[in-house]
């Protein structure tokens, strides 16, 4: 855990997403990829978004930067307030200045996210030239400096290499260098470790954490891997079926989760402190079809605890559980007495068996 | 990973799903107006070809010098050519030539390229190398050389032209079938069939062929169109089927000298040619989209 | 890189050798009616037959003929015509420039319009322009070249003359006219003779290139690195030209370079329709007369050109795409 957990969340959020709905209009029907998502990110904060693939976390990030392909995608409603200004009302020209200059983004697969026909240095230089005054020379120097800062050896030489000449970890570092080259106030990292070897993952996370902290940039870390989130975020939102189903400070969420889906995620993390013969407990079933999401609670077909009538008929609201820790959860059963103990008892049972 | 994938979620078109698959294909094809219209046109054209002697009133080779270069009239709906032959009659009998040449080409070429492609894909090795290199070399031969060879050895007969078109077109579909076989071959159920002791022939006919059938259907539709096109090109250049057989390309070639005084000689056979080739293109497009809806983007 | 090029050159030469050998086998080994063409008679007396066979080397063994044939070709002698005794080399020299000029303009039209329309259609996907050009591209593939040629002749040549349109609106439909050029640039009224055949030569391929460049552009526009470029805050014109087009051009250029044989096939028809005295109409005239040596000699050159063009495409590709450069360096 980092020491930043203790920092109070700033009163004035840097980014505030309000009831965002991003739909895709396809031949088969309307896909509600993001369906009413709200969250705040404060200055310098590290915010995690966790979920399975298809849960809407990447679409949320791309909606913020206005990168949704139109058609078929469309932001139906909601607000994205960036330092108080609604990004959805911005002109294309205003958005261009914000993209890369104030909010930047790194993508999951750094090999396909870097243009194969230009050198790595050129691609960073190009971005610097767009957002900062100065000569091509100084922009190139900035690119080399950033490559050095993210830990690429002999940066002046490697800047002349093409993306395919980099290793997977170095490509992701180069993406991070590019994203941070114009000193943005927020950097969105979409699955920064997914395409990498386990040994490289930790290094890349460290680079993100360190360089972002040096620049004082806030980070939105998008991942399906709770282990990644646990190590470096201040607050976490869990997404399922286009909605946030649980949100709160990282300790609160990990030690006192209320939503059965979060329990499932926590239950499926391999842990060294458990006996080796114990089997991981995957969540049964497949993620919901976003074309025809299940009625009622979107998680109920896979939920072992969906025994209320409301579970299958009424979609639960996101309710406050622990206001001090900003803990919200979306489940009909959280109001039951002793609900939070169900998970702990289960964990104990598993540990004993 | 957070979730296990259940087999039912992976809706692949396995053998058990074949019937709904084809119903689906038919539904998607029928939604394509252009393709359905083209099918209607082709049916009509086939009827004209089959019934040609019944719906025309002159012989296709009957010369009548008195009626040379006649404009379209009540007696001659589409006029007459330089030798006074009835254009409508020649067009109807020409449809016979075009369609039968194309059909013969497609049958021979599909069988040939299936054999070559499937065997190359299935056995691999030197047989694969030889056939595919041969295909490469054949693709570099200009068509005029190939057709010249066939007509100078065998004469300007219908079956000779069929062979020439096959010789020019087998490479593309052979490569296609080879790729299809390679793809199917690498799949697990073929491994399973082999492991359970199925003979090669049985594997090829029972497992590989049914799964490669989709590209075959599409390539047949496009193949008919391009065979008609190529046959007309030969006819136009004067290296195809010989006069006085009524072939559309030949008729357009004759019309070249009469654009000024008898443009109808050009417009009727050229129109028939364009409509027919386009019809088969649209049918091919429709079939491809219906068989593989993934190829079409989301709206 | 160098050894890659040498290997690629070897492959190209192998294809040329294979093609020329197949053509040799076709025409000189399998007995045809060569003698009939040569003598111009249906029934040939034995002594005349022997004289002809001796003169044309047809009395030698197959291998002997084959060696003799290659010996001749490698010394730059493409043979002479059966029908009028003219040397193929001379014919080629006379006609090649005419074909090259026409092909230059045809290629220019197909590259400019094909890629241009394809890219615009991809960027404005599902717009009216996209739908219309898509339909036209399909239709062009279905219209035989000679029908298109005659249609243009009728609409822009014959009809205007019949209706007495002003002179500037009338186009000549036959021949090459004054034959005045500065290298490839038409001088004076030359362009009026050039424009219709050039359009006809380009048309089929233009439709094809439009479709290919649209498809590859659409694919590239969905690529992750284009999204990255937008996320960097670049202008959309910069994103399209610098990041998308550069990558989308690769498959398109390959198609253009690889289809020299196809272009020649179209040129045969175009030059025949317009009586343009190039290689295509020449080869057609001699094919019509079943004059084998001329057709073979000219076709061999075309095959050689085709192989060279695909070699050039490979080299160009490795310059445009750094990934190819690396893999070849690794192999070396």
Q: List unreliable stretches of 5+ residues of chain A.
A: 1-10
Number of structurally distinct domains of chain B: 1
Corresponding CATH superfamily of chain B: MetI-like
Q: Proportion of β residues of chain A?
A: 15-25%
- Count of strand segments of chain A: 12
CATH homologous superfamily of the largest domain in chain A, by name?
P-loop containing nucleotide triphosphate hydrolases
> How many domain regions of chain A?
2
CATH class descriptor of the largest domain in chain A: Alpha Beta
CATH topology of the largest domain in chain A: Rossmann fold
Number of helices of chain A: 13
Give the overall pLDDT of chain A as a whole number: 82
- Quaternary organization: heterotrimer
- Using the coordinates shown, work out and report the CATH topology of chain B: MetI-like fold
Class of chain B in CATH?
Mainly Alpha
Helix content of chain B: 55-70%
| Largest β sheet strand count, sense and barrel closure of chain B | none
End-to-end Cα distance of chain B, whole Å, is 32 Å
What gap, in angstroms, lies between the N and C termini of chain A?
Answer: 30 Å
What does this structure look like?
Chain A contains 13 helices and 12 strands. Chain A is α/β, with parallel strands linked by helices and 353 residues long. Chain A has 2 domains: 224 residues, 3-Layer(aba) Sandwich (Rossmann fold), CATH 3.40.50; 95 residues, no CATH class. In chain A, strand 11 and strand 12 form a beta hairpin. Chain B starts with 17 loop residues before the first helix and ends in an 8-residue tail after the last helix. Chain B has one domain: MetI-like (MetI-like fold, Orthogonal Bundle). In chain B, helix 4 crosses helix 10. Chain C has 332 residues and is mostly helical. Chain C has a single domain, classed as MetI-like fold (Orthogonal Bundle). Chain C is flat, with a radius of gyration of 24 Å. The termini of chain C are close together. The C terminus of chain C is likely disordered. At the B-C interface, helix 5, helix 6, helix 10, helix 11 and helix 12 of B face helix 1, helix 6, helix 7, helix 11 and helix 12 of C.
């Amino acid at each position: 855990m980092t020491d930043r957990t203790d920092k109070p969340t700033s009163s004035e959020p840097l980014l505030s997403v309000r009831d965002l709905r991003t739909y895709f209009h396809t031949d088969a029907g309307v896909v509600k990829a993001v369906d009413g998502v709200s969250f705040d990110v404060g200055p310098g904060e590290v915010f995690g978004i966790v979920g399975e693939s298809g849960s809407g976390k990447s679409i949320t990030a791309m909606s913020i930067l206005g990168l949704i392909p139109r058609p078929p995608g469309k932001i139906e409603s909601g607000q994205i307030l960036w330092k108080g200004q609604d990004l959805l009302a911005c002109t294309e020209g205003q958005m261009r200045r914000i993209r890369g200059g104030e909010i930047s983004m790194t993508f999951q697969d750094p090999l396909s996210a870097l243009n194969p026909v230009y050198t790595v240095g050129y691609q960073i230089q190009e971005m610097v030239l767009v957002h900062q005054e100065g000569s091509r020379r100084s922009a190139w120097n900035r690119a080399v400096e950033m490559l050095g800062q993210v830990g690429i050896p002999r940066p002046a030489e490697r800047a002349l290499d093409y993306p395919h000449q980099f290793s997977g970890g170095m490509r992701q570092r180069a993406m991070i260098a590019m994203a941070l080259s114009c000193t943005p106030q927020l950097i969105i990292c979409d699955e920064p470790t997914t395409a990498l070897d386990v040994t490289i993952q930790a290094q890349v996370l460290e680079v993100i954490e360190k360089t972002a902290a040096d620049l004082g940039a806030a980070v939105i870390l998008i991942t399906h891997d709770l282990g990644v989130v646990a190590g470096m975020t201040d607050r976490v939102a869990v997404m399922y079926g286009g909605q946030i189903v649980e949100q709160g400070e990282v300790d609160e969420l990990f030690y006192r989760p209320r939503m059965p889906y979060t329990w499932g995620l926590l239950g499926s993390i391999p842990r060294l402190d458990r006996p080796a013969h114990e089997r991981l407990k995957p969540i049964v079933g497949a993620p919901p079809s976003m074309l025809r999401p299940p009625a009622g609670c979107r998680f109920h077909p896979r939920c072992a605890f969906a025994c209320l009538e409301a579970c299958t008929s009424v979609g639960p609201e996101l309710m406050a559980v622990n206001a001090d820790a900003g803990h919200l959860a979306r489940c009909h059963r959280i109001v039951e007495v002793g609900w939070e103990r169900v998970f702990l008892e289960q964990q104990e049972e598993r540990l004993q068996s | 990973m957070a979730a296990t994938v259940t087999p039912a979620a992976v809706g692949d078109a396995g053998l058990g799903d074949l019937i709904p698959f084809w119903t689906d294909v038919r539904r998607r094809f029928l939604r394509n107006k252009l393709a359905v219209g083209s099918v209607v046109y082709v049916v009509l054209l086939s009827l004209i070809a089959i019934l040609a002697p019944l719906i025309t009133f002159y012989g296709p080779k009957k010369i009548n010098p008195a009626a040379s270069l006649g404009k379209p009239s009540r007696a001659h709906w589409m006029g007459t050519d330089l030798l006074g032959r009835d254009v409508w009659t020649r067009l109807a009998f020409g449809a016979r030539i075009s369609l039968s040449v194309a059909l013969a080409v497609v049958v021979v070429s599909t069988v040939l390229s299936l054999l070559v492609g499937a065997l190359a894909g299935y056995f691999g090795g030197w047989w694969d190398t030889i056939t595919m290199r041969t295909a490469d070399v054949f693709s570099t031969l200009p068509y005029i050389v190939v057709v010249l060879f066939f007509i100078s050895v065998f004469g300007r007969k219908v079956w000779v032209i069929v062979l020439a078109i096959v010789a020019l077109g087998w490479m593309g579909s052979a490569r296609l079938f080879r790729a299809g076989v390679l793809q199917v071959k690498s799949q697990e159920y073929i491994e399973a069939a082999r492991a359970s002791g199925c003979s090669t022939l049985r594997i090829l006919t029972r497992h590989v062929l049914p799964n490669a059938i989709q590209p075959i259907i599409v390539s047949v539709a496009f193949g008919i169109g391009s065979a008609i096109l190529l046959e007309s090109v030969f006819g136009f250049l004067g290296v195809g089927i010989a006069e006085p057989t009524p072939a559309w390309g030949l008729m357009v070639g004759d019309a070249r000298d009469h654009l000024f005084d008898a443009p109808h000689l050009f417009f009727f056979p050229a129109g028939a040619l364009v409509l027919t080739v386009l019809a088969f293109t649209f049918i091919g497009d429709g079939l491809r989209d219906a068989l593989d809806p993934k190829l079409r983007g989301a709206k | 890189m160098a050894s890659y090029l040498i290997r690629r050159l070897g492959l190209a030469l192998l294809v040329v050798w294979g093609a020329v050998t197949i053509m040799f086998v076709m025409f000189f080994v399998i007995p045809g009616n060569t003698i009939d063409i040569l003598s111009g008679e249906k029934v040939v007396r034995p002594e005349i037959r022997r004289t002809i066979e001796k003169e044309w080397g047809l009395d030698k063994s197959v291998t002997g003929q084959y060696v003799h044939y290659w010996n001749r070709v490698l010394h730059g002698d493409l043979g002479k015509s059966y029908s009028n005794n003219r040397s193929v080399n001379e014919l080629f020299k006379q006609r090649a420039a005419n074909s090259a000029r026409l092909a230059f303009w045809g290629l220019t039209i197909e590259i400019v319009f094909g890629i241009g329309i394809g890219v615009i259609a991809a960027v404005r996907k599902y717009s009216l322009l996209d739908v219309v050009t898509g339909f036209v591209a399909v239709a062009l593939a279905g219209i035989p070249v000679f029908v298109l040629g005659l249609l243009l002749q009728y609409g822009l040549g014959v009809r205007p003359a019949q209706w007495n349109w002003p002179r500037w609106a009338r186009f000549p439909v036959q021949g090459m006219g004054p034959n005045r050029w500065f290298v490839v640039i038409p001088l004076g009224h030359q362009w009026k003779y050039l424009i219709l055949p050039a359009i006809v030569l380009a048309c089929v391929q233009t439709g094809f290139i439009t479709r290919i460049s649209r498809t590859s552009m659409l694919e590239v526009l969905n690529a992750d690195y284009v999204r990255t470029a937008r996320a960097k805050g670049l202008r959309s014109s910069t994103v399209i030209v610098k990041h998308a087009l550069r990558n989308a051009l690769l498959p398109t250029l390959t198609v253009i370079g690889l289809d020299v044989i196809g272009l020649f096939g179209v040129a045969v028809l175009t030059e025949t329709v317009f009586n343009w005295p190039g290689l295509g109409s020449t080869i057609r005239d001699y094919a019509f007369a079943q004059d084998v040596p001329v057709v073979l000699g000219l076709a061999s050159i075309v095959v050689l050109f085709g192989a060279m063009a695909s070699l050039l495409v490979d080299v160009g590709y490795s310059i445009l795409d750094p990934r190819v450069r690396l893999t070849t360096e690794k192999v070396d």
